[in-house]
User: Fold this.
Amino acid sequence: MDQLEKHLTPDECRLLANLDSPARIQAWLDTVPYSKDDFYRCPLRVMRDRKAHCFDGALFAAAVLRRIGHRPRILELLPNARDDDHLLAVFKENDAWGAVAQSNYSGLRYREPVFRTLRELTMSYFEDYFNPVGEKTLRGYRGPVDLSSFDRLEWTTSDAGLESLADGIDRYRSVAILTTGMEAALQPVDERSLKAGLVGSNPDGLFKV
Assistant:
């Protein structure tokens, strides 16, 4: 975190000082427009551009969670081939998992730290994890990945190593959450839930089905 703070202006230092809990980190991310860009932003650039997609938001949240005493850990939610993956910054309080996230879908953001396992946390996203045509697409997860193992890439202040960081995450073992029979029996999302999930979304950032 010292590496990031060396680059901050006084106003940015004050902003960061106010983000002293997971809920406040999420509240700030909720003010940041969802990015449709196909490149990654480091946490420093997220602060300055005021723009982020889920990868950028997860890295930002992980960096700030580290500042307030948590490990900088992320969890990757894995869909089928008809949707985008989703990254969460995860944290533990009272021996339970919670999450902070940026998303183009209203239901794929914050989770209170009440989940005893990572599978429980992942499953809390299941009904809200759908593509623009209402297909439920969540199939598994990967991680958690401790980003401190990537500190050599200076991921908090530089975009240069983020492709390598993403490739490194992909090497972690994935865990499936559904059987083939479960997948075959899935029902589409109802119309109200679909509309609710897309409230405030950036259409340009949605998966093209």
Notes: The first strand starts at residue 73 and ends at 79. Residues 2-200 form one domain. The chain has one domain: 2-200. The chain has a mean pLDDT of 96.
